[in-house]
Amino acid sequence: MQNVGIVGAGAAGLATAILLAESGADVVVYEAKPSLGALGSGITMQGNALRAFDRLGVWEQVRARSFSFDVTSIRAPGPEAPLVAEMHDNRMGGPDYPATAGMFRPDLAEIMLARAQALGARIRFGTRVTAVHQDDDGATLVLATDAGTQEATHELVVGADGLNSAVRALIGIETRPEPNGMGIFRAFVARPAGADHTELVFGGPSYIAGFCPTGEDTMYAYLVEDKQDRQGMTPEEGSKLMAELARPYGGHWNAIRAQLEAGVEHVNYTWFTSHVVTEPWNRGRVVIIGDAAHSCPPTVAQGAAQAVEDALVLGDVLARHDGLTEELWAEFHGRRVPRATTVVEASNQITSWLLAHERGDVQGLHTTISELVSREP
Ligand SMILES: Cc1cc2nc3c(=O)[nH]c(=O)nc-3n(C[C@H](O)[C@H](O)[C@H](O)COP(=O)(O)OP(=O)(O)OC[C@H]3O[C@@H](n4cnc5c(N)ncnc54)[C@H](O)[C@@H]3O)c2cc1C
Q1: How many beta carbons lie within 10 A of that of residue 164, not counting itself?
Q2: Domain boundaries in the chain?
């Protein structure tokens, strides 16, 4: 493909931009937001995501600005936060990458954007796609900007426009993300000394109380609860609510709670959703990837990893097939739909067990996902 339009500058869109610009295509990314406004929280990235970042040429920068570890601890609620288990995590990307790295999301977005631009991709912020038409010659996007409505025609359009994807609706795919009953508070805080890997507490008033280090001095902490209507909550209100919910948790949560009580700048709240498009992800020369095609609760921390893998496989099939043929799409869907579906189903199963207060074979599911995503996509 010589001329590609990408809708959305999230992980999926920027990964696609990097790969296709690197292969010599003329790439334009249309992003509705006026700038890269990634949510100011953290992200947990497993080894397969880190391996993918290496392929994108950003692993060294990601490594330098993230916090790597190979262990996860499980603790019980209570003032002493008793240790239940300490697990050595599989290195899902292979021995060259740590099992897990935590990172501040805006840092990741900045690194990916810089790489895409260095390779020649053009990013048009403040440009919302509102319609798409296609014929044998190309797909035309209708773009709403402050300067009015414009059009742009591309050989291929990649709809990487997230959960509420406009492109998905515009090409007639009806599958939509559904809330699964849970909501999550996330706060970006200072990392207490000794908090050097993810710790999860199951039980107490929240389903999960967890944290993940993101740098020498930073980490993000989260609490998963039954979903509530918390729209319009200010950071001050979010900090106070989170501090209150965190009261029964001890250990490093004492230091986290003290920060929340004093007020934390980056606090957000969102509902868990789930969906997977099991029919083809393309209509003609328009395809959806990333959260537009699949979403899941972050219980196996694979959402962004799967989004970036979509981009890797799309880049690979485009490089090996001549034109947008049936064979290309069959290979793309054959490599992506089953893998993404397995990840979504496993993530949902874990939240179903949590919602039902059932013990379930969580470890077994983690092993299944670990074996799956260890393999190249
Ligand atoms: C609470 C929570 C925690 C998570 N934690 C993790 C984790 O720890 N690890 C992990 O791997 N994943 C995690 N995920 C999942 C991960 O965040 C997503 O899977 C990933 O960010 C999806 O990337 P994307 O590029 O597909 O979509 P997005 O990042 O949503 O990007 C879509 C972009 O498209 C733009 N856009 C939308 N509509 C239009 C339009 N009409 N025109 C132009 N632009 C448009 C948006 O502004 C946005 O910038 C988590 C998700 C949630 C909800």
Answers
A1: 12
A2: 3-67+103-177+274-374, 180-272
Instruction: Evaluate whether 3-67+103-177+274-374 and 180-272 have a shared fold.
Output: no
Do 188 and 264 contact (CB within 8 A), yes or no?
yes
pLDDT for 38: 63
Neighbours of 131 (CB within 10 A): 14
> What pLDDT does 344 receive?
98
Residue from 103, 161, 167, 306 whose mutation best tests the ligand 1 pocket (most atoms within 8 A of CB): 161
When pLDDT is averaged across residues 115-134 and rounded to a whole number, the result is 98
Pocket test for ligand 1, best of 18, 31, 128, 287 (most atoms within 8 A of CB): 31
**Do the strands 178-190 and 198-202 form a parallel or antiparallel pair, or are they unpaired?**
unpaired
pLDDT over threshold 80, residue 84: yes
> How far, CA to CA in Å, does 98 sit from each of 92, 137, 213, 232, 302?
8, 45, 14, 38, 15
166 CA closest ligand 1 atom index: 41
Give the pLDDT band of residue 131 (cuts 50, 70, 90): very high
When pLDDT is averaged across residues 358-372 and rounded to a whole number, the result is: 92
**Domain 180-272 CATH superfamily:** D-Amino Acid Oxidase, subunit A, domain 2 (3.30.9.10)
Verify whether ligand 1 is closer than 6 Å to residue 288 (CB atom).
no
User: Is 7 near ligand 1, meaning CB less than 6 Å away?
Assistant: yes
CATH superfamily of 3-67+103-177+274-374: FAD/NAD(P)-binding domain (3.50.50.60)
